[in-house]
Amino acid sequence: YVLKSLKDNKLYIGWTNDIKSRLAKHNAGKVFATKSRVPFVLVYIEGCLSREKAIKREKILKTGFGIKYLKLRI
Question: Which residues face 12 on adjacent strands?
């Protein structure tokens, strides 16, 4: 999933098996990596068939190529 901070317009890329709960945690300031940048909106989501594939996809999206790909899609 990809979140966009409404505070600084920067993206946050992560993975989860419960996007609704995870977004709520981000917006409640309960995620250390993002607590200073709340609020967030969900701007992109992909589904994966396994945890391992989701983690690999997250790593790809965090690369230069991945960021360019996301900016074209968002």
Answer: 3
Give the separation between CA 32 and CA 46, rounded to whole angstroms.
Answer: 23
11-13 β-sheet, strand order = 11-13, 2-5, 40-44
Which amino acid is it at 11? L
The model's pTM: 0.91
pLDDT tens digits, 9-64: 999 999 999 999 999 999 999 999 999 999 999 999 999 999 999 999 999 999 99
Quick one: three-class SS letters along 6-63? CCCCCEEECCCCCHHHHHHHHHCCCCCCCHHHCCEEEEECCCCCCHHHHHHHHHHHCC
Angle of CA points 72, 57, 30, to nearest 5°: 95
